[in-house]
Amino acid sequence: MENKANTQPIRVLLVEDNELNQKFATAVVKRLGFQIELAENGAIGVQKYLDAKFDLILMDIQMPVMNGLEATIAIRKHEEERGLNEHIPIIAVTAFAMEHDKRNCMDAGMDDFLTKPYKPIELEQKIKKYIK
Q1: For labelling alongside 80, which of 74, 86, 87, 96 has CA 20 to 30 A away?
Q2: Inside any domain, residue 4
C-alpha cells in the first residue's frame, strides 16, 4: 500500500527489543503491505527516526538503553524544536496495562496504546486508524 499524498511506500518503525515480538509485529505490518524497520531500543529508534522518514512508530515501553517513554519524549521534543508541522503517530505496544501506564504513555506524547499480548487484528486496527 502506498501513501496517496506522495506515492511513497508506507514505512513503519518498530522499536522493540524482544525478538518474538519483533517477528509477530513484522508479519502483521508486512501483511498490510507496508515496509517495516526495526530498532532494538529507544536510542536506536530515535536515531532511525532522525535519519529517515516514517509514517508511524510502534513503541515498546520496557527496553534497555532508552525506554519507550524517553524515546517518545525525545521525538516530540525534536518535532517541537524543528517546528515540524508533521506529528508522527506513536503507538505504545506494551505488557503494562494499568490505567496509570496508559496515562504515562499519553503524557509522554504517544497517540495510542495497545496491550501485549494482542491479536493481529488489534494491531491492524490501530495501524489503520493512523494510516489512511
Answers
A1: 96
A2: no
Q: Residue 5: inside a domain, yes or no?
A: no
Q: Of 49, 56, 75, whose CA–CA distance to 131 is shortest?
A: 56
CA 82 to chain centre: 20
How many CB atoms are located within 10 Å of the residue 13 CB? Answer: 26
The backbone torsions φ and ψ at residue 117, rounded to the nearest 5 degrees and listed phi first, read -75, 150
Question: Which residues share a beta bridge with 36?
Answer: 12
The C-alpha cell that represents 79 in the structure block? 518535532
CB distance 25 to 123 below 8 Å = yes
The residue segments making up the domain with residue 95 are: 11-130
Query: To which residue does cell 515501553 refer?
Result: 61
Could you list the beta-strand ranges (E) of 70-115: 90-94, 112-115
Predicted confidence (pLDDT) per residue in 64-100, tens digit: 999 999 999 999 999 988 886 779 999 999 988 788 8
3, part of any domain = no
